[in-house]
Design goal:
heterodimer, A: mainly alpha, three-stranded mixed β-sheet, two-stranded antiparallel sheet, globular, B: five-stranded parallel β-sheet, three-stranded parallel β-sheet, 13 helices, 10 strands
């Protein structure tokens, strides 16, 4: 059996995003260590703070496991979240595939019994809105007017990387991808009437700025946290 | 007071602490991690000369806070926002009593806020009355992510929380500072969601809700609530230090806040000792929206900066502003632009 390549592992992990930031865990610096041993992949994750929200941490650990187990020749995946206030609960829960609510039961019984579906959906929508705004910004900067955006169909958009990512986010929400479907959609999947386009884009811009400034803060905190560790262990 | 280019700024620092995060006070590993996390925030977002070694950061002296806030820091008044964290710290991290020692010693300098936790039931209501009487409270700081045994947080929508807010109205505590945190009930939902602020702000119209850290990391949800609730304010602690390391992000954040909330509902806070008012104020007064963004956000005028740095909070806390530091003429706020806009369902 041939060895699993590190590039395969990292490539699979680049499809795992921090739901709050809409960025891959690989570029965020959350992957601290990858080890391959025959059919087993061991992965260590680290986060910007010890007190990050447990549900997002769980989503990333769970998604990482799923992404890796789907690789050919991978038989076993171990995910370990480092230095985290509920690391034990999350690591055990992901190992046993028991879902967030059960994994957290020893920490607190304050869950709704619906696991993470609702929170995943909320953040898929935010990511979708952000990517839509980025694409529209690109189109506006190339001379398209807001009024034209209101009437554009997906098939009218010239190919560009921003469109690719937008379509990916749109697919995740199960929205129409046909070339004749409207370019602009609300987070709920409804078309935007012409008179509401400017306001829609204003709010979309706010969502993008929120996600991106959170990303900046997380990246700075991660560097401070692990920079300090590396300094003190040196 | 800060003076620059012929303009004078009255400064009310709406978010300071006099904490004890020292190892002797740690109840468990969470106490250590919490103060280290604060220290990471300082390290991540401060100019080099304002970074402290962690040992100094654990606990600091009365002399140091007075020096940093008032001798070099330009604060005219500073408001203590307590954070109890009694599950992490033996004597609490930064309680009303700890802060109150300084507030009683320097009454012309400090205002101390109280706190409550609706999970404390009837006894907590009596404690709030006691605090209000002793410290003449005008505000409380609420930390909804506070752990209490197996409970990892609470919501402003809880029935008990509303009983406490009713008590605040009765006691004349009109400023409710809200800080979200990473854990809350239900744990599987977004802990940072500010929807409960919306709920209570429309129910308790006599109270002002100052959302600390402008709702970060949920700026978008916060701004949207701010357009609908005139008694919702945004405190800049944690957002304002972006001015140094990430000025373009800061420009966008302040630009969005001015658009959605308007200049009358944004307040300054250093979050001392995480950050120091001296450099925050110097950089904020010097700050301008970058030219390529001015089409979207306009510019920051000295009047806007005066309101944010002190006049808005002076209004909320009935702080007397010297005549020469008040705004001249009809510089009343124009209100947020966003409020006239046709809302679209988010």
């Amino acid at each position: 059996m041939s060895e699993i390549r590190e590039s395969e592992v990292l490539d699979a992990l680049s499809g795992v995003r921090d739901p709050e930031l809409d960025e891959p865990i690989t570029t965020l610096g959350f992957v601290s260590h990858v080890e391959r041993d025959e059919g087993t992949v061991r992965l260590r994750l680290r986060l910007p703070t010890y007190f990050c929200s447990p549900n997002f941490a769980y989503i990333m650990a769970e998604d990482a496991k799923r992404a890796l187990i789907s690789l050919p020749r991978v038989e076993r995946v171990e995910v370990v979240l480092e230095e985290f206030h509920v690391a034990r609960e999350i690591n055990r829960g992901v190992e046993r595939d028991e879902g967030f609510d059960r994994a957290m039961a020893s920490f607190s019984d304050e869950t709704t019994g619906e696991d993470l579906d609702a929170v995943r959906e909320t953040f898929r929508k935010k990511a979708f809105v952000r990517r839509q705004e980025i694409l529209c910004r690109t189109l506006l900067s190339r001379g398209t007017s807001p009024r034209e955006l209101a009437h554009m169909r997906l098939g009218d958009v010239p190919p560009c990387p921003e469109l690719e990512v937008y379509l990916e986010r749109r697919r995740e929400l199960g929205f129409d991808l046909s070339p004749s479907s409207p370019l602009l959609l609300s987070a709920g999947g409804d078309p935007i009437p012409e008179e509401a386009v400017v306001e829609h884009l204003r709010k979309a811009r706010l969502t993008r700025i929120s996600l991106e400034s959170n990303g900046a803060l997380c990246s700075d905190l991660l560097q401070a946290r692990y920079g300090r560790k590396e300094k003190s262990s040196a | 007071m800060y003076e620059k280019d012929g303009e004078k700024y009255f400064v009310v620092d709406g978010h300071v602490h006099f904490w004890d995060g020292s190892p002797q006070n740690w109840r468990n590993v969470h106490g250590q991690q919490f103060i280290e996390c604060f220290h990471d925030y300082q390290t991540a977002l401060s100019p080099e000369e304002y970074k402290w070694p962690i040992e100094e950061f654990y606990k600091y002296s009365e002399e140091r806070i007075l020096h940093d806030l008032f001798e070099v820091g330009y604060d005219d008044k500073a408001i203590f926002q307590p954070t109890y964290l009694t599950d992490f710290y033996k004597n609490g991290f930064n309680t009303t009593e700890q802060d109150g020692v300084l507030a009683e010693k320097y009454p012309d300098r400090f205002i101390v806020n109280g706190a409550f936790d609706p999970r404390d039931g009837e006894e907590g209501l009596r404690e709030l009355e006691r605090l209000a009487e002793r410290y003449n409270l005008k505000g409380v700081k609420l930390y909804t992510a506070e752990w209490k045994g197996r409970s990892k947080g609470w919501s402003l929508k809880d029935d008990w929380a509303k009983r406490y807010l009713e008590k605040c109205v009765e006691l004349g505590i009109k400023n409710i500072h809200v800080h979200k945190g990473p854990t809350i009930r239900p744990l599987n939902r977004d802990a940072f969601d500010v929807a409960d602020v919306d709920d209570v702000a429309s129910e308790f119209t006599d109270l002002n809700f100052i959302v600390e850290h402008v709702g970060l990391p949920r700026l978008e949800d916060f701004c949207w609530i701010g357009t609908q609730e005139p008694n919702v304010y945004g405190g800049l602690a944690v957002a304002i230090p972006f001015i140094h390391t990430r000025p373009r992000y800061f420009a966008q954040i302040i630009g969005e806040l001015l658009y959605w909330l308007g200049e009358d509902r944004i307040t300054f806070g250093s979050d001392y000792a995480i950050w120091q008012p001296k450099w925050l104020i110097e950089e904020f007064v010097d700050f301008q929206i970058p030219e390529d963004m001015q089409g979207e956000y306009g510019t920051l005028t000295p009047e806007i900066k005066k309101k944010i740095l002190g006049l808005n909070l002076a209004g909320l806390y009935d702080i007397e502003v010297p005549e020469e530091l008040k705004l001249k003429g009809a510089h009343s706020g124009t209100g947020p632009v966003g409020s006239d806009a046709e809302p679209v369902a988010p």
